[in-house]
Every structure is written in structure tokens, then in C-alpha cells.
Amino acid sequence: MLYNSEDLLNMIHLTKSDILHLAKLSGLTLTEKEVKELSYDLSSVITFFEELKETNTKNILPTSQTTGLENITRADKIDTNQTLSLEDVMYNANDNKNNLFKVPIILKK
Amino acid sequence: MNKYIPVIGLEVHIELSTVSKMFCSCSALHFAKEPNTQVCPTCLGLPGAMPYPNKIAIKDVLKFGLATNSKVNKFSKFDRKHYMYPDLPKSYQISQYDLPFCINGKISLKSGKTINLRRIHLEEDTAKLQHYEDETGQYSLIDFNRSGVALCEMVTEPDFENVDDVIEFLKEIQLIVRYLGISQADMEKGSMRLEANLSLRPEKDSILPDYKIELKNINSFRFLEKALNYEIQRQADLLNKGVKVAQETRGFDQLKNTTFSQRIKEEAQDYRYFPEPDIPPFRFEDKFIFVIKSEIGEMPQEKRVRFANDYKIPQNYIEVLLSDKKRSEYFDKLAELDKKYSIGLNTIANLMVNKNLDQEYPEPELFIKKLLEITKKDYSTTDENTNAVYEVLHEFPKAVSDYNSGKGAVIGFLVGMVQKKLGGKGNPKVITDMLILNLKSPK
Question: In a 3-state reduction of DSSP, which class is residue B396?
């Protein structure tokens, strides 16, 4: 992606350490080149969202819901029809052992 | 050497004993089940699967909150807590952030000290990881049967200043949970899990320390006690040497009775909480809260007071009987039956606590029957009773006529006179019955 000089001036700049922090949170390993590209790309995304600041939200309550629903619960019952077969459970697994998902070591002692 | 006061706060996780999971209809009974046989798209964290909250789990948490004098947040919601770890494949845990179901609870200790509960919230348990090493290298294995099981988390304020209070508090919490019937709270099976954070402040300084050590993955009260005592000593030694205590998470080594660092570099937590968009919020009416409160029943502390006041049995007996709700209820039944037999509640409690006699007799009636048989020898014989009653009725005609003209209280006097003749060996119940029978029979 190419930016013109005016864009760059008004842009919020995510630093290299911001990008590395985000990469760590996302479990991604990035090359030097990717870090550079992402810092431009993500900065422009965030700059774009800056436009929202122009909206007047003085009398608007924050919300995380749009349906207006409340207190939606289910009875405490087992429905075995929802339970997957072992074959289905393991269908996309890279590796398994004794019907357990096998992944690279997590915690080194 | 400076003197230090421990500053301790606790986090307690309680796995609720609902039959189904928190956000899906899979079975929640995961202990010792074949791996990955109780899972669905929701608890596997597959894209597009929708969470559907379990009503009983929510009620259980409100019950727990009300039983610990907490305030129920009348408006509450779930939030997403993000972190990358294979025990949680959707990369976030559905938990609660700024509006937990319950806040500001209080538990009183025997010393009179109050421990403040910051919050009690509901979340989903994670999958179970096991770590291995063999000829193929190091790897981890994951079982999702536990993933999505309803998990309640209670967080205290850092109000504890000694280890004994911590253990007393935790035992009381375990008892409350068991009385409520919302969890087995079994630490060996992982349905109750403990975390403590601990730091030391100088005795003369009330400012909170600028570090804290988290103790994690401790699966018994005894190990927690040892870990805390070890940590208090370790931190005091460091502080006395002028060394700054590094903020970190530590585990407990059960063989060496020491704590060890689990992570050297602690990065600032960045969970990026935001409201769970797939679950509408909750609004609890006063009536709903009232109904839940009325379902709570007698809590251990209330029972403790009642047993002491009504039964007047020793404190150590009370604690043993209380520690098992069913046993305490069994004792209640015995106490009721004993109103007739007057065996004595101390004797009964003693036979339960020291001889486990209740284990042999599932029915309280049979327990009492057995006790009467044991103690019968000491009572006077039927012939002796008959003679004594006959004599008393003839020696005190005034009392007899008083009784027959409606002064029922005089029976106590007559029982006393019979006992006097028997040298106090009469069974009060038997004598009373015999007197009443003879008083009422036509002359």
C-alpha cells in the first residue's frame, strides 16, 4: 500500500514495540519487513477510525448490544445430540494421541 | 532484623456442579471421563458457535454471593477476556469484567476479624493440558471435556495478615459452598482451586508493598499453608538483606516444601476485555433476588450458633458435626428424638464424634434404640419401677388428686419422688409414662 505525504503527516504512528506487543498477543512471529508493513497498515486503519471522534456522542449511552434482549438463559440439561463424535472432534486436528489433541510443548519445566 | 506483616489476598475458583456446561448442553461431569467425548462446537471454541448461558449456574453464583453477604449487581453482563493459550482455542474466555454478578461480600472469622470479598463472578473453565516428554520430543495433550464447565471465581481484598486466618477462611468458604450444594469443592478433583498473592509490609508502615508474589496451582489447604509460610520467610530474608522482591508467579514444590519461580519475566497483562456481544446482559428484579435468598437455608455460621445455644455441646464437637451437612442434620434428628428419651446430647455427640456410631446406623431412630440398649443396664428394672410408682401414688394422695383435677405440672414432683426411691436409677421417660398410665386408670 502506498501513502501520499499528507496521509503520513496526519497519521497516528504505531511504533515497532506496539506492533511486537500486538504480535505477541496474537501469537504471531513477524519478520522485520512484516513489522514495518504492519506498522503502516495498522496505523492507517487506526487513523481511519479516528474519524469516529467527529461524531457527537454527548447524549449517547455506551452499548454492546443491539437486540434489546435481556436474561436469555437455557435450562441446565444435557443434550447429547449436540455432542460431537470423536471422529468429528479430531477431524481438523494436526495431530492426536489417544484421542487427545497433540500440540507443541506449552510449558517448559 | 525488621518485623514484617504479611499482606495476603486470595482467589478461589469453584467448579459448579451443574449437570451441563456453562454455555452449551454438553455434560459437565468431566472427572475421569474418556477424553474429548463431551464436547461440541461451542466448548471446542469453533468459529460461529454461539454461547447460551446456563440459568442454574447463574442462580448458583447469586446464591453464593448472598450467602457471603455480597451485593448482587442488578445489571450484569459477560465479557471476553483475551489471551492466547491452547486450553482456550477461541483465544478468549467468557468471563465477567466490570459488572460481576456479586460484589462487596463479607465473611467474619472466629477472631471477629472481617474479610472483605471484592467480587464473585462466573466464567467458563478451560481445557485440561498435560505436558509430556518422550523419544518424539516434548509435547502437550489437550482434553476439552472440562472446557466450558461453569466456573465461579471469588476474589478477596488483601485483608489477611496471617496464615491461620487464610486457612480458616478457606475452610469456611468450602463449607458454605457444600451447604449450598453448588459444588463438591473437592480440591483433589480440582473443583476447588486456590491462588494466593502475598507480600510483606514493615510492621510500623501501613502502606501496601509495591510488589506481590502470586502462588498458583496449589491443591490442598496443607500445601497452601506450607507455601505461604515458606514465602513469608523467603521474602523477609530478602527484605532484610535489602533485596527488592521480584514480582512473579511461584508454584509449590511438594517434595521440598519450597516455592519456585514459574515465570521469570512478568509481562503486564493485556486481556483486552470487551462485552460479550453474543450474550445479552442480565437484569435481576428484587423479587428474583429475594426468592434466591429464601432458598439458601441455614448456613454453617448460623448452625454453629444454634448448636451452641440450643444443644450446649462442646465447640469441638460442633465443628466436627458441622463439617458434614448431612451429619449435622442427623444430629438435629437425634436431638429431636432425645426430647423423649433424655439420653443427653453430650453423650450422643460424643458417640458420633469419637465412635462414629452414626456410620453404623443410617436411621437416627435405630441409633437411639441402640443407645437405649447400651444404657438400659444402668436403669432400674420394671419390677423396681412398678413398686416405686405404686408406693409413691399411695404416699402422696394430695399430688394425685391435684393431677386429676388438672394440675399437670405436679407430675414432675411425682417423678422426683419415684427417682428418690430408685436412687436416681429410673429412666425418666419410662417412669413418667408409667405414672401417667396409673394416674389415669380408674381407681
Answer: coil
